[in-house]
Amino acid sequence: MKMQRGMTLLEVLVALVVFALAGLALLQTTAQQASGIGRMEEKVLASWLADNQQVQLHLEKTWPEKRWSEKTVTFAGEQWHLRWQGVDTQISQLRALDVEVRRNKQDAAALVSLRSYVVQQ
């Protein structure tokens, strides 16, 4: 009586199905991570722009107006839309400064919103 060696065709097919499913799961996870990295990069760039705009406005030492001002800039090879406005606070010599950054002017939600405060001199 001979001992059987090796795998049957059914065992090979089951192993191939298991490896194929594992490969598909790995591909899906990699695609999600790549998409997340792109979104994270976009938010980091937008936060840098918002921070830069606030610093520029603080350095100019101008009292923020209570209406939206806006501009479009090119940064990192892309177009970005920035807008900012002053918001009254309970202290008359203190005004909040809100800066928002969007990829497009028409975007409903800002990628980044940043608030700081300006003291009237």
Automatic annotation (TrEMBL):
Record's protein name: Type II secretion system protein I
Residue ranges constituting the Type II secretion system protein GspI C-terminal domain according to the UniProt record: 40-118
Subcellular location: Cell inner membrane
Organism: Serratia aquatilis
Cell membrane is among the record's keywords: yes
PTM remark: Cleaved by prepilin peptidase.
Topology in membrane: Single-pass membrane protein
The keyword Plastid is assigned to this record: no
